[in-house]
Specification:
Blueprint: E1 13-14, E2 18-22, H1 30-36, H2 39-42, H3 54-65, E3 71-77, E4 83-93, E5 98-105, H4 115-130, E6 135-141, H5 145-154, E7 157-168, E8 171-181, H6 182-189
Parallel strand pairs: 5-6
Antiparallel strand pairs: 1-2, 2-3, 3-4, 4-5, 6-8, 7-8
Bound molecules: coenzyme A (COA).
Coenzyme A (COA) binds near residues 103, 104, 113 and 147.
Amino acid sequence: MKDTKENPSVPFLIGKKIILRPLVEKDINKKYLCWINDREVTKYMETGVFPTTLKELNDYYNRIKNSKTDVIFAICDKKTKKHIGNIKLGGINWIHRFANLGIMIGDKNYWGRGYGQEACKLLLEYAFKRLNINKITLGVYSNHKRAIKTYKKVGFVIEGRIKGIFYIDGKFLDHIIMGIAQKEYIKKYGNF
Ligand SMILES: CC(C)(COP(=O)(O)OP(=O)(O)OC[C@H]1O[C@@H](n2cnc3c(N)ncnc32)[C@H](O)[C@@H]1OP(=O)(O)O)[C@@H](O)C(=O)NCCC(=O)NCCS
C-alpha cells in the first residue's frame, strides 16, 4: 500500500526487516485477492479451498475490524513498505488468556527469507507482553515443513497431533497442534 494523506501506513510493531501495521480497507484489493486464490499460497491453509471474491474478503475484513477477539496486522517490508502478507492473533479468550496464531505471506518472493519468523516473533512479543496472553497455539498440516520449522524456531513446540484428518493431494495428513506459553516465551527471550 502506498502512503496517502487519507491512508498513511503507520507502523505498530517494528522489526529489523519488517513492520506490522494495521490492516486497512485499502489493503482489501486485487493483490490480496490473488494471494487468497493462489493455490501455491493457500495449499497448506483451509482458506482457499473454495474461490474467494472481493466481497467475501471485505466481509472478512469488517468482521475482524469489529472483533474484540481477533487482531490482524499487515506484514510490510520495512524498507519499501510493500504489503507482503498478514498475521493474526485470533480467537482470543480474555478469561483463560489464550489465542491462536495465523500467518500468510502472500508474496511468494518473500518466502524463505526469515520474514515469517520475524513476523511471528513480533506477534508473540505483542501478545505476551502487551496483551498478557498466557498461551498461543496454532495448527499446521504435517507436510508443511517450512511452516513447522518457522514455528519451532520462534519457540513453538508440538503439543498434539490429530491423525489423518486433512485431505491434501490424495492423502489424509495429520493436523499438528503447536503451542507456546508465556513462561516458555520468557525462558527463551528473557523477562519483560
Ligand atoms: C509458512 C510461512 C509463514 C513461513 O514464513 P517464511 O518467511 O517463508 O519462513 P522463514 O524464512 O522465516 O523460515 C523458514 C525456515 O524453514 C526452513 N525451510 C524452508 N523450507 C523447508 C523445508 N522444505 N523443510 C524444512 N525446512 C524448510 C528455512 O530454511 C527456514 O529455516 P532457517 O531460518 O533455519 O533457515 C510462509 O512461507 C507462508 O506464509 N506461506 C504461505 C501461507 C502458509 O502456508 N501459512 C501457514 C499456514 S500453517
